[in-house]
Amino acid sequence: MAFRLKLVPEKTNIDFFRWQFLTFGLSTFLALASIVVLFLNGLNFGIDFRGGTTIRTESTQSVDVGAYREALQPLNLGDVAITEVFDPTFGPEQNVAQVRISAQDGAEAVTPETVNAVEAALQEVDPSITFPSVESVGPKVSGELVMTAVYAVAASLAAISFYIWLRFEWQFAMGALVSLVHDVLITMGVFALFQIKFDLTTIAALLTILGYSINDTVVVFDRLRENLMKYKKMPLREVMNLSVNETLSRTVMTSGTTLIALIALLVLGGDVIRGFVFAITFGIVIGTYSSVYVAKNVVLWLGVKRDWSKQPTDEVAAQFRDAP
Amino acid sequence: MLHIDRWKRILIIGLCVLGLAWAMPNLFYKRVEAHNDAVAAIEAAGGSATPEQQAAEAGWPGWLPSDLVNLGLDLRGGAHLLAEVNTTEVYKSRMDAMWPEIRQRLADQRATIGSIRRVEAPEGVLRIEIEQPDQIAAAVSAVRELATPVASLTGAGSSDIEVSAEGRTLTVQLSDAEKRATDDRTVQQSLEIVRRRVDEVGTREPTILRQGSDRILIQVPGIGSAGELKALIGTTAKLTFNPVVATGSDPQSSAGVGNVILPDTENPDFYYTLEETPVVTGEELTNAVPGTDQNGQPAVDFTFNPSGARKFGAYTSANVGQPFAIVLDDEVVSAPVIRQAITTGSGQISGSMDFDGANRLAVLLRAGALPAELTFLEERTIGPELGQDSIDAGRIASLVGLLAVIGLMVASYGLFGVFASVALLINLGLIFGVLSAIGATLTLPGIAGIVLTIGMAVDANVLVFERIREELRTARGPARAIERGYENAMSAIVDANITTLIIAGILFMLGSGPVKGFAVTLSIGIITSVFTAIWVTRLLMITWFERRRPKTIEV
Q1: What is the pLDDT of residues A199-217, one digit of tens each?
Q2: Comparison of pLDDT for B370 and A290, the residue scoring more
Q3: How far is B122 from chain A (nearest CA, A)?
């Protein structure tokens, strides 16, 4: 017997419903808490969604946030946020900061004068400073991007539910929908709680999470459908447990490979896409959890058609066949 | 039993080889890029090549594929602008141009409608008061005779102007159908002009696209800053030559009918009163090049086309000793006095400009004027170093992720894990091959998409392997187990990947720039990973099985 790494024992018999008040309760609590946090803290929208300018600065001298702020004070730019950026991929002489300026009142278009003034003021503080990236988004576009993002998430949810409904049953579609909303809400809650920058790429990350989470859920559903045909007399709850147990090894393995690859990117991929990668990584964990603990609970509550082998019109014949 | 038809084997291997061949140039990115640039330059020069170009061209054999993955702005560095065309501006000039015609038409009927007068109105609307309110119907029908049908598919059947009357006031404006048609034309023209201007500067692979009804997206790799790009495309560059009526220092003084007061470029307190109708416009230029004036100062030399030259010659010979103004974007650049008739059809613009300015003005005049002003809604500049840092970080992260996944797969599934890893490597190659072949753009989130694919690509294999393990437990022999494993895993693989593809499709529609790049790599990754995970691993597995004929297998 050659050595095999087994993340999950060959045969498991875990009762996934045993603690369902705890697990589903926790999910419900986290989802509700996320809504509360979203309302209390709000999301830390990037310029994609609220307009404004971000300037990335890089210098051989260490970043002095106070001095930067003082230099920008006389320009009267309103809300200015300056943060130093740290990253393991930076060299020793690489000191990076991010300056964010909110959209200027009454200016629909982006004003290059503002950017030039900011750059000049910062150069005064630190002559070696350079500006590797400058991005400005006008309030008009940012308003539209918010709507596009909302539509995209809604359209994805609708399209996936519809597909699941076609391929399975409406109860499965509801289960998938609930677990997807759960994933999106909690991920957004984490973004609101830690005030991580939320921009267009975060939306892309959210959609990716949807894709991954549904992928996981579908594998469980597929096995469930198969087992429902195989074990016609077994209570639904047990068929579900059996299906999750049978696919558990695959679920853990796939999440494992995906997480390993993503963690490599999270650590080594640089700070520019860290928020994006963080959202996906977090979402994969929560998505895996929800496909095991959320989606099928909903299906269990809604109940499901038990006889998959025949058309409903065959009921009479089925009765005869099943008769002793 | 386990079997793959010979033609399927050839097809699978052929597709892999083809994909990898298309991907290969990306391993020698710099060299192939130099080769491609040299080939394009030599072709543009009509076959003649400098020694450097010849060397660059020889750096990559011509018979090999030479398509590369385009790097997005966030990886290559460059400028991105989103501009909105102020289409309503054109309505005003259309109505202003119509006024003399309408005035003429109404003047012909002076006997019945009495005297007429143009009154204050919002931009793009013409209001005319007539003396005899009871004759307003006659005035309306007279103006309506000037209407022409709208020249567009959607607006067919409607006329270009709308005439209405209230009391003694006549209101004329463009009809909605004509406005739509005009908007469309204005944006098309602007797009064309922007493209010509960017091409004149000769940067590599600019992207200039129309977005929505009235926006233009401009992406130029390798340009230093968005400001530089804006200076080039944000200027309207409307050049006219107008007769000078008077000069003065009061911009508020009354200009008189048909005249305008415009400021001087150099002296802000100096104003010219000009006739509004130009003698010649920039549209009649055939060429403009930077040069120097008699004092050695930077200037732009221009040449008129024959009809422009004729008009200019006629005007100058009739007005020797009079000044005329060269007007650029509503500012008087200079107002020389005509010393003698200029019949050669060429001239010079001099004034306050440096050599860069002269160069830029020449480019702008050659490319033509924008029909309407552009407003910039979004602008992004990414420095090339930042892009290179991102590429390096992405490369290291992908490698580490790849090795970790391979390690985990081999540790978990042994020899079968090796098969899956080989398929994974081929999958990576295929992603790059497809990206190169379809000329897609790789962005930073796109790299994340590839890393995500590395992790998720093995999913189909994991599903199959887990199934084979289960089937082995029921002990029906290894060949049967492998076959059943594939059969039973198929529906899960298909459903799981189609749902992900749906998401990728929506992402593509939502996306601008980087997000779109992510959607593209994700979609390609899904398709190639299903192909490699199902067919390539199966081929490897079956080939191994046929050679060894193992009695038992261990997954």
Answers
A1: 888 888 888 888 888 888 8
A2: A290
A3: 21
Using the predicted structure, report yes or no on whether residue B200 has a pLDDT greater than 80: no
Q: Which residues contact B173 (CB under 8 A, 6 or more apart)?
A: B91, B95, B124, B125, B126, B161, B162
Contact A260 B404 (CB under 8 A): yes
pLDDT surpassing 70 at residue B156: no
| Number of domains within chain B | 3
Structural domain includes residue A287: yes
Task: Tell which residue, A177, A176, A198, has the closest CA to residue A187.
Answer: A198
Complex confidence, ipTM: 0.83
Do A34 and A167 fall within a single domain?
A: yes
Same-domain status, A132 and A151: no
Q: How close is the nearest chain B Cα to the Cα of A71, in Å?
A: 22
Chain B residues whose CB is inside 8 A of the A258 CB are 452, 455-456, 459
Residues 6+ apart with CB under 8 A from A281: A259, A262, A263, A266
**Mean pLDDT for all residues in chain B:** 83
- pLDDT attached to residue B452: 84
A98 touches chain B (CB under 8 A): no
Domain assignment present for residue B204? The answer is no
Please write the tens of the pLDDT for every residue from A40-71: 988 888 888 888 888 899 888 888 888 888 88
Per the DSSP assignment, residues forming a β-bridge with B288 are B302
Across the interface, of A136, A200, A268, the residue whose CB is closest to B515 is A200
Instruction: Give the pLDDT mean for A21-49.
Output: 90
| Residue A245 covered by a domain | yes
| A290, A295, A296, A299: CA torsion to nearest 10 | 160
Give the best residue of B456, B461, B527 to mutate against chain A (max A CB count within 10 A). Answer: B456
Instruction: Provide the residue type at A218 as one letter.
Output: V
Q: Which domain holds residue A121?
A: 52-137
A204 at interface of B, judged by CB pairs closer than 8 A: yes
User: CB distance B401–A4 less than 8 Å?
Assistant: no
Question: Which of A141, A160, A264 has the CB atom closest to B404's CB atom?
Answer: A264
The CATH number linked to A129 is 3.30.70.380
- B165 within some domain: yes
Residue A174 has pLDDT above 80, yes or no: yes
- The total number of residues written for chain A in this structure: 324
Other beta carbons within 10 angstroms of residue B210's beta carbon come to 15
Domain that holds residue B150: 88-180
Under 8 Å CB-to-CB from B219, ≥6 apart: which residues?
B73, B78, B79, B80, B81, B206, B207, B208, B513
Assess whether pLDDT exceeds 90 at residue B204.
Answer: no
- Closest residue in chain A to residue B496, using alpha carbons only: A215
For an interface test with A, which of B82, B229, B375, B381 has the most A Cβ atoms less than 10 Å from its Cβ?
A: B381
Residues B309-352: pLDDT tens digits? 888 888 888 888 888 888 888 888 888 888 778 888 888 887 76
**Residue A29 sits in the same domain as residue A78:** no
Q: Is residue B311 part of a domain?
A: yes
Tell me the chain B residues in contact with residue A267 when contact means C-beta distances shorter than 8 Å.
397
Q: Are residues A168 and A231 in the same domain?
A: yes
Answer whether B393 sits within 8 Å of A136, measured CB to CB. no
Q: Number of residue pairs across A and B with CB atoms under 8 Å?
A: 236
Q: Residue B475: what pLDDT?
A: 65
From A102, A137, A172, the end of a domain falls on: A137
Q: Are residues A113 and A157 in the same domain?
A: no
Yes or no, beta carbons of B499 and A215 under 8 Å apart: yes
Residue A110: what pLDDT? Answer: 65
- Indicate if A186 and A262 belong to the same structural domain: yes
Q: What is the pLDDT of residues B432-478, one digit of tens each?
A: 999 998 888 888 888 888 888 888 888 888 888 888 888 888 867 88
Q: Hunting for tokens 């492998």 — which residue is that?
A: B482
- Same domain (yes/no): A267, A206: yes
Please give the C-alpha separations between residue B544 and each of A24, A144, B482, B547, B549, in angstroms, as whole numbers. Answer: 46, 56, 12, 5, 8
Q: Are residues B327 and B390 in the same domain?
A: no
* Cβ pair B451:A246 closer than 8 A: no
Phi, psi of B4 (to 5 degrees): -125, 130
Whether A303 maps to a domain, the answer reads yes
Same domain, B437 and B544: yes
Beta bridge partners of B334: B326
Residue B203 has what pLDDT? 67
